[in-house]
Task: inverse folding
C-alpha cells in the first residue's frame, strides 16, 4: 500500500511541475530573485544578495528534477540532469549568482521553447479551431440550428455569409462564392455553380446559399483533415530521437569533462562552470521547434502531415513511387481529338455525340459533353434515348437516329476509321464512335491527360533530393510507358493489382526511404506499406487518405513538391540548429574547463546559445522563395486568360489536322476548302492569340523566370507558327484555276499542315506545363 500512496503524490507532483504555467511562473520567480539580489548587492548587502540568489537557484531545482524524471519515464535521455547538477554544484561551491543565472537560463529557455512551439503550431491549431460544430438545417420554411452530428445525407442546409460549410454537399440554387484557402492553400475565392460538389471546411465568401448534404460529419472532408491535424506533433519525430541519441553521449561527456577539470585543476568551480555552459542541451530545444514549424508551414500549403515523424522521414526520402491515374494524370478523361468521315465536319460530330450523351452517367460521356460545352456548341435535346451498359447510348438527335459508344463493326471499315483505330492505339486513347442512321460518321478520341503541373513537380522533386522516380499503375503498358517517357521517370511497372503494388513498394524500401503517392482505394495497401504514404485527398478515396501519412488536401500534385521541400528544409534546420548548438556548447565547455569562463559568465553565454538555436529553428516557418516563383496578381490573371484561350483554340488544331488528312485523300476543291477554313481560323483566332502572348504574357513572366532569355525558346516557336501560316497562305494563292494543286505543292502544303499541327501541340503543352502551371 505504501508503494501506491507514494506513487500518487509523485505523479501529481510531476503533473503540477509540467503544467503549461510552470515555465512563466519559474521565469517570474527567477527574474525577481536575480533582481532583488542585484539591488541588495548594489546597496552593499552581499549576504542578502546571496540569500536572494540562492532562493532563486532552489526554486529551479524542483521543476528541473521533474523534467528529468518525466524525460526518463518517456524513455528519453534526461539531459536536464546537467541543469540539476549545475544548480546543485553552484549551491555547493557557493556560486549563488551563477546558480541564479542558471535558473534564469533554464526558465527562459523553457519559456522560449514553449513560445516557439505555440508560434509554430499556430496554423495547426487554427485548422482545428476552424472546424464547424453545428449546422443550420432547412425544414419547409423554417431553419433550425442542429448539432453537426445530427446532419444526415440528403438534408437541406443553409450556409450563411462568413459561415464554414459544415459537411460535404452539392450547391442548390444560386452560385456559391467560397474561400477554400483552408483546404487548398489558395487565397483566391472560387465560384461553385448549382449542382457542384462542395467540400466541408470552405468559408462562404458571398451570399447565403443552400447545400444538399452528401455526407455526414464523420465522412466529410474537413473532419478527416481535423483528425489528421490533431495527430500532428513532433514528439515522435526520428530527428528528435536522433537528438536523444546524441544526448546519450553528450551527458556522460559533460560529466567527464567537468570531472577532469576538477581533477586536473583541483577547483570545483571549474567543474561547475563546465556544467553551466552545457545546460540545457540545445538538442532538445532545436529539433522539436523546427519540426513543428515545418508541420505548420506544410498546413498552410494544403498539406496535412500526421506527425513529425512522417515529415522528418519525408525529408530523408530518396525514392518516390507514383500511381498514374489521378496522380500523374488528371483522373478525368478529356477529348483528345475529333475525327470526321469524309463530307462531315468535326464540330458536327462532337455536337451530335454530346447531345446524345447529355444524360449518360458514363465518365467518357461526361468528357464528350464537357468538350462540346467548352467550345460553345449548342446541344440539341435528344429523344428516345436508351443506353446499353458497356456499349453506349442510342437515340434521336435532330431527327436522325444516332448511337455513340463502342463500334460493333470491325470488318470492312473505311480508311478514315482505320486511321482512327491506329491513332488511338498510338496515343493510348479510347474511342467513342458516332453512327448516324447506321453509318459511321465520326469518332471522338478520349484520353486521361497528364497534369499540367506534373513535369515541373518532378523536376522540383529531383532538385529536392529524390533520386529515383517510379510509376506503379494498373493501366496498360503502352500508355504508361508513354507518360513515363514524357516525364523522364526512371522506371515504370504496369498492369499491377494492389498486391503487386505492395510487393513493388517493399522491394524499393530495401534500397532507400520510399514515398508512395496515390489516390484510389486500390492504392491504400501500397500507401500503408511505404515508409511514407501520400494521398491525393481532394478527390481521392477515404481509404487512401486513412492509410496515408500525408494528405494533399488540394487537387494539385505540385503540393507534393512543396511538402518534400518543406520536409528537407525543416530537417536540415533541425539538425543544423542542434549540432550548431552542441558545437558552441562544447567550445564553451573547453573554455570553462581551462578556467577562462567563470560560472556566471558561462550561464549568460549558454543563455545566448539556447536563444540562438531556437530562433534558427523557427526559420522553418518561413517560405522558401526559391521553390516557386512569386507572381503578381496581374500576371496570374494573364495566365488564367491565356489558359482559357488554349481550351477555346483546341478546335483550330483539329481543323489543321483535318485539312492535312483531307489532302492525303484528295487534292480537289473539298480538300482545298478545308485548308482555306483552317487558314481562316489561323488568321482570325490563333495568330492574334500568339501575338498577345508574345507581347503581354511573356514580358510579364520574364521577371519571375529570370529575364527575357527564359522565354526566348517559346518566342522562337511563335515565329515558326507564323512562318508556317504564311507558307500555307502562299500555297492557297498559287492554286490553279481548276481548284487543284500541283503534286509539288500538294506535298509541301501537306507537310506544312502536319508540321504546324505538331508544333502547335508541342507549343501548347510546353506553355501549359512551364507557364500556366505557375498559377493556382
Result:
Amino acid at each position: 500500500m505504501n508503494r501506491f500512496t507514494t506513487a500518487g503524490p509523485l505523479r501529481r507532483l510531476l503533473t503540477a511541475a509540467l503544467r503549461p504555467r510552470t515555465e512563466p511562473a519559474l521565469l517570474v520567480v527567477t527574474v525577481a530573485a536575480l533582481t532583488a539580489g542585484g539591488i541588495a548587492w548594489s546597496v552593499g548587502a552581499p549576504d542578502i544578495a546571496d540569500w536572494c540568489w540562492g532562493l532563486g537557484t532552489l526554486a529551479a531545482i524542483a521543476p528541473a528534477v521533474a523534467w528529468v524524471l518525466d524525460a526518463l519515464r518517456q524513455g528519453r535521455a534526461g539531459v536536464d540532469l546537467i541543469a540539476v547538477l549545475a544548480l546543485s554544484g553552484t549551491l555547493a561551491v557557493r556560486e549563488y549568482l551563477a546558480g541564479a543565472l542558471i535558473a534564469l537560463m533554464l526558465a527562459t529557455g523553457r519559456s522560449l521553447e514553449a513560445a516557439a512551439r505555440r508560434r509554430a503550431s499556430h496554423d495547426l491549431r487554427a485548422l482545428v479551431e476552424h472546424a464547424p460544430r453545428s449546422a443550420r438545417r432547412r425544414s419547409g420554411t423554417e431553419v433550425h440550428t442542429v448539432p453537426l452530428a445530427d446532419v444526415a445525407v440528403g438534408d437541406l442546409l443553409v450556409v450563411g455569409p462568413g459561415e464554414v460549410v459544415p459537411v460535404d454537399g452539392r450547391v442548390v440554387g444560386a452560385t456559391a462564392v467560397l474561400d477554400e484557402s483552408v483546404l487548398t492553400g489558395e487565397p483566391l475565392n472560387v465560384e461553385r455553380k448549382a449542382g457542384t460538389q462542395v467540400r466541408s471546411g470552405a468559408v462562404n465568401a458571398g451570399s447565403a446559399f443552400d447545400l444538399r448534404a452528401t455526407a455526414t460529419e464523420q465522412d466529410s472532408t474537413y473532419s478527416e483533415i481535423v483528425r489528421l491535424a490533431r495527430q500532428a506533433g513532433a514528439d515522435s519525430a526520428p530527428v528528435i530521437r536522433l537528438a536523444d541519441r546524441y544526448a546519450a553521449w553528450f551527458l556522460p561527456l559533460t560529466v567527464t569533462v567537468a570531472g577532469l577539470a576538477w581533477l586536473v585543476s583541483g577547483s570545483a568551480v571549474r567543474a561547475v562552470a563546465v556544467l553551466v555552459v552545457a545546460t540545457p542541451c540545445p538538442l532538445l530545444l532545436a529539433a522539436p521547434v523546427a519540426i513543428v514549424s515545418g508541420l505548420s508551414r506544410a498546413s498552410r500549403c494544403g498539406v496535412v502531415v500526421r506527425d513529425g515523424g512522417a515529415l522528418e522521414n519525408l525529408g530523408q526520402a530518396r525514392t518516390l513511387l507514383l500511381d498514374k491515374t489521378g496522380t500523374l494524370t488528371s483522373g478525368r478523361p478529356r477529348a483528345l481529338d475529333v475525327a470526321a468521315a469524309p463530307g462531315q465536319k468535326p464540330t458536327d460530330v462532337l455536337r451530335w455525340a454530346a447531345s446524345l450523351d447529355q444524360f449518360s452517367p458514363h465518365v467518357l460521356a461526361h468528357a464528350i459533353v464537357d468538350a462540346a460545352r467548352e467550345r460553345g456548341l449548342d446541344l440539341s435535346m435528344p429523344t428516345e434515348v436508351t443506353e446499353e451498359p458497356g456499349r453506349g447510348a442510342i437515340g434521336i438527335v435532330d431527327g436522325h437516329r444516332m448511337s455513340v459508344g463502342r463500334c460493333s463493326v470491325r470488318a470492312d471499315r473505311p480508311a478514315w476509321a482505320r486511321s482512327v483505330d491506329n491513332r488511338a492505339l498510338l496515343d493510348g486513347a479510347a474511342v467513342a464512335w458516332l453512327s448516324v442512321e447506321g453509318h459511321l460518321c465520326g469518332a471522338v478520341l478520349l484520353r486521361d491527360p497528364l497534369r499540367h503541373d506534373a513535369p515541373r513537380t518532378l523536376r522540383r522533386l529531383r532538385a529536392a533530393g529524390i533520386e529515383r522516380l517510379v510509376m506503379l499503375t494498373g493501366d496498360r503498358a503502352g500508355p504508361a510507358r508513354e507518360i513515363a517517357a514524357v516525364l523522364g521517370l526512371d522506371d515504370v511497372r504496369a498492369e499491377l493489382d494492389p498486391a503487386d503494388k505492395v510487393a513493388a513498394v517493399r522491394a524499393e524500401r530495401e534500397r532507400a526511404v520510399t514515398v508512395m503517392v496515390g489516390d484510389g482505394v486500390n492504392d491504400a495497401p501500397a500507401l500503408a506499406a511505404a515508409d511514407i504514404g501520400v494521398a491525393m485527398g481532394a478527390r481521392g478515396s477515404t481509404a487512401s487518405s486513412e492509410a496515408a501519412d500525408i494528405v494533399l488536401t488540394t487537387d494539385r500534385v505540385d503540393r507534393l513538391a512543396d511538402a518534400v521541400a518543406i520536409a528537407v528544409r525543416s530537417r536540415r534546420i533541425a539538425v543544423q540548429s542542434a549540432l550548431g548548438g552542441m558545437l558552441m556548447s562544447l567550445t564553451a565547455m573547453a573554455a570553462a574547463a581551462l578556467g577562462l569562463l567563470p560560472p556566471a559568465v558561462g550561464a549568460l553565454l549558454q543563455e545566448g546559445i539556447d536563444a540562438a538555436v531556437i530562433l534558427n529553428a523557427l526559420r522553418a516557418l518561413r517560405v522558401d522563395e526559391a521553390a516557386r516563383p512569386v507572381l503578381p496578381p496581374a500576371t496570374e490573371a494573364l495566365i488564367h486568360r491565356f489558359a482559357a484561350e488554349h481550351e477555346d483554340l483546341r478546335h483550330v488544331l483539329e481543323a489543321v489536322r483535318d485539312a492535312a488528312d483531307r489532302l492525303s485523300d484528295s487534292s480537289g476543291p473539298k480538300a482545298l476548302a478545308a485548308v482555306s477554313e483552317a487558314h481562316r481560323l489561323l488568321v482570325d483566332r490563333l495568330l492574334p492569340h500568339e501575338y498577345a502572348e508574345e507581347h503581354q504574357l511573356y514580358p510579364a513572366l520574364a521577371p519571375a523566370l529570370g529575364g527575357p532569355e527564359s522565354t526566348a525558346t517559346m518566342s522562337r516557336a511563335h515565329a515558326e507558327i507564323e512562318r508556317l501560316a504564311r507558307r500555307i497562305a502562299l500555297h492557297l494563292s498559287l492554286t490553279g484555276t481548276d481548284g487543284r494543286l500541283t503534286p509539288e505543292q500538294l506535298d509541301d502544303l501537306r507537310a506544312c499542315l502536319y508540321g504546324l499541327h505538331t508544333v502547335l501541340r508541342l507549343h501548347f503543352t510546353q506553355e501549359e506545363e512551364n507557364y500556366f502551371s505557375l498559377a493556382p
Remarks:
- The two ends are 65 Å apart (CA to CA).
